[in-house]
Amino acid sequence: MTSLTFKRAIIAAALALTAVAALAEARGGAASFDTLDTDGNGEISAAEMQNRHAAQLASLDTDGDGFLTEAELAAAARERAPERAARMMERLDADGDGRLTAAELSGPDRAMRRFERVDSDGDGSLSRDEFEALDTRGKRRQRDRD
User: Fold this and answer.
1) For residue 146, what are the contacts with CB-CB under 8 A and spacing of at least 6?
2) Angle, in degrees to the nearest 10, between helices 3-26 and 46-60
3) Which of 23, 35, 54, 93 would staple 31 via disulfide (CB 3.0–4.6 Å)?
4) Distance between CA atoms of 45 and 109, rounded to whole angstroms?
């Protein structure tokens, strides 16, 4: 196998796993052991995992062409968006009123945790290098989302 073919295979596998994870989350989380052990022998074989992944990918492939498109992945993401929003609300809505205030979104604890993560040398201030590393990480995350 050529290096380029191998790299393409790795990228395809990574995309497939991402799609499977998106689908699993959209459908209520990871599969149980019993669901994956389709022959009921108390073990999950590689073939059972491959069959499960193939079935999940097929369910994402809404037009049945054997490929996943950006639109199909976006549809899966939209399907799971309400559940993710509910979890976010549950986690951040400190007073339980069903509304998020600016304080709840960027409260002192959250801001300090972010600051402490960026302050890699722990000196209580951000150097230019630490700040630029934060900017680089933010741009990389945004690029990964696009």
Assistant:
1) none
2) 70
3) 35
4) 45
pLDDT tens for the chain, 146 residues: list them. Answer: 556 666 666 665 555 555 555 455 444 456 788 888 889 998 888 888 888 888 888 888 999 998 899 999 999 889 889 998 998 899 888 899 999 888 787 765 666 777 788 888 888 888 888 888 876 666 666 566 55
* Phi–psi pair at 106, nearest 5 degrees: -135, 40
Q: What is the pTM of this model?
A: 0.42
Cα torsion at 134, 137, 141, 142 (round to 10°)?
60
Please name which of 70, 40, 35, 28 lies closest in space to residue 53, comparing C-alpha atoms: 35
Q: How far apart are CA 12 and CA 6, in angstroms?
A: 10
Domain ranges, ordered by start, for the chain = 3-101, 106-146
What is the torsion angle, in degrees rounded to the nearest 10, for the CA atoms of residue 48, residue 49, residue 55 and residue 56?
Answer: 150
Q: Are 20 and 73 in contact (CB under 8 A)?
A: no
